[in-house]
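Sanity check

After download, print the first record. It should look like this:
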Amino acid sequence: MHGVVRLRVGQKYRRGLPWQQTFEFLFVTLDNVEIPKLLLKPRLFRRVETRKYNTDKPPQLKQVSPPNDMTTTTPHEYQEFVPLTNITTTKPHQLKHTKPLNSSTNSPPQLKQVSQSNNTKPCELKHVTCPPKTKTVVLNGDRLYHKGDDLTVRVVARDEGGRPKTYGGDFFRARLVSTDRLPLASSAGHVTDHSNGTYTMQFPLYWTGNISIKIQLVHPSEAVAVLQRVRETPNKRVFNCSFVDLTTNATQTRQCYSSIDASMTPRQLCDLSKRDVNVTWICEKPDKLPCSTISMCHYASTTSRVKTLGLLSQRELFQEPYIEEELKVETKEPIRVLETELAIPQHLPACTWDKSAAQGYWSGKVWQSSVCDVRVFSKNDIRQCLANKTVYMYGDSTIRQWYLRLKKVLPLFNDNRTMDSTVLLGGDNSQWNISVRYRFHHFPIQTRGWVDFRQLRYIADELDAIHGGPNTVIFLGLWAHFTADPLEMIQSRLYAIRGAVHRLKQRSPGTRVFVRTGTTREHSGVRLEYYLLGSDCLAYQITEVIREMFRADPDVVVLDTWDMSVCQPGKDSVHPDQTMVDNQLNILFSHICPNKTAS
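Expected structure tokens:
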């Protein structure tokens, strides 16, 4: 290692945050770049009360008042809204609580400085994480790496003046990709936010050959704070619903919301909420028609766009160079992974409820789990696996993708077209005695097309109506239409669904239930409100809610698809390509039929 290294010990004390922290640091100066390394875990003195979700008691749906000031123009305001620790927003990967690397005053780790690209647009906002100024170092980059090792990268966030930031909250996306092998390989990195402006990214090394490190700053912490405040503002999204008198055909259209409107009296509202499934649905009351005449609803995109953008005062946080900016890590020498010197088990255990296939890597167009045996299922394998079974699929259009794929693969006939295909689909294969039914979840549904409100059902109610049994398989997936709403909405709905699953398992113990997480989605070139309402940061928060809700629940298998989407070979999309869908289904079928001979 070249350059001059200087050490000093000091303390930093910060005010103006939701907590006060005193840190003791070892300051390592390398080539005139001072890098603070945390020596002692900070003591946290809470000054505000935080809400932590209790899975033993359903969260209460409360009216949340919009913030009085959406301006984020000073360093103090940025710091004031650093996300609280009970809502993790900084790890675009699987949930992994990793302790910070230990620092030593006697033998500081060898740091390999990584050069930065100079092609990025200059930063102009003060005190905001600046990608060109942010420093990225590979810890022990000169060592020999073998398959099975971990590669560790440290990121030190800096602002436009090159000053190290003293708080965390940046949202990164970290990947490894192969550069000299076919088929191409890629994997996701595990990001640890040390809450002091530094981040550790660990990359398991799954394959041999030369590798390239890809780190993207999706949002700086200041933008994450804005996203969080916008999310917690209720009723940004507006839905238009028609009320129809079937006798006279009299029709009136009114605005509806997913939270209570405190500005209106109960006499002015139609309360169509369903308390036993933790759902709120409020509409403006028609002049002459009863609330029971509600008919069709759709998402009022223009009205919602105006309301959402009205909550934002500093759009520069969602423009270049502060959004989805690649750090473009460059090492002085290519990092090459050698074959391991230790014996590696040739066979992985079967995929069970407590063995998630989330960890792994892409080898070409096949997801290779590092935890359990994920097989590649042929069409005939799928038919054997699902033979004599009834499959229920509930959720959004990402689950509908699974139904449409199965319809083609099995194939399914007698496709149910008697109802709105947005709401309900179904088909059968008499040769293999397979029945598959798909139903969209209830509102909020963010689609411009009109949806028959009367045909929708709540998932918890549907689960209570299923008899179940060993030949019944249930897939649940709802996340994409909830990224714009306060987290307590999806938490409450999932809590009701979990209760219905437990009741189902009690009366039919052999029923198998799976719930999947979210994925990354497309944003490039889209309008600003799509970030505010559907950023990957918001989707990842829901992924963590799903993990936390069902992590230790033996009645449910969590199909965690986040990591595989972070490093997928195809383009990011809320509706991913067939490669992604097929590999998601491979994970599912490996849990249903773990043996080579499908049951």
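If your output differs, re-run the checksum step. Summary of this record's structure: Residues 487-507 form the longest helix (21 residues).
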